[in-house]
Specification:
Layout: E1 11-14, E2 17-20, H1 62-106, H2 117-135
Antiparallel strand pairs: 1-2
Helix pairs in contact: 1-2
Amino acid sequence: MSEDGSRPSVTYQGPRGPQGSQGSAGNQGNQGRAGNQGQAGEQGAQGKRGAQGEHGVAGLSRPVRRALVFLFVLCVALAAANMLWTAHAVNADNQQQCASLEAVARIPVPQPVAGNPSRLWDSRYEAIERQRARQLHCPGF
């Protein structure tokens, strides 16, 4: 127990010195606004100028310059790899679409189309698919 008998006072020896109970202060919450600080005093006289230091080398050091060039080249190489992969993915997708469009275009549309709404729809759908195939530069269209 502490001297006043209300709380035990335990102090643990930690790696940075004594740690433990800091008293019964608890959480103090909002402390409110600080009071008026008063007027600032007058400024004193300027001091003497110190000795001038040595002049350093302007610019970046050689290892830093090499690191910056390497990072720039790495970014450019990654951007180029990204462009190549995107072109590959788009071409693969176009080939899949060409195969799909070719399969649709092979289905014969029954004739005559005039007077039959379902055959008219089939005919228009096939025309649209053929147009898509030409836009994708699919072989055979």
